[in-house]
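Typical record is below.
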Amino acid sequence: MREIKFKAIDSITKRWIYSNGYYFDGTNYWFITPNIDSPAIGFADYHIVLKNTICQYTGVKDKNDKEIYEGDIVKYSIYNEYTRELLSTLFEVVFHEGAFVQEHRIKLDPDYYKVTKTIWYEWDFTEVVDNIYENPELLE
């Protein structure tokens, strides 16, 4: 069973916050994180996060043992034995029809044509390089 975790950008500090869950109070989305500096057992910090940055952990790690989240930009690299070249391409990790997949966008005029490839089979050739919230231009 995979671990359920989330990350999102704190609305005040603009830093990534990690949590095992979040809740919506009718106005804001909140992350609750343990406060390790508090002497009180069970004391927690509460963070209002930016809704459009809430990302779920896929349950897998890249080749460098880094957790892969929805919204991450990953580089898929494989060595072509015939041409003796290292082939690489960038993908966005998205949740699509019940699964986390790598989505590759090929720009056609005037729209994008989308190709998806499942993340589960070849994640050991994948490396997290950034995310769509801080550097979306990497996918252009």
In short: The chain has a mean pLDDT of 82.
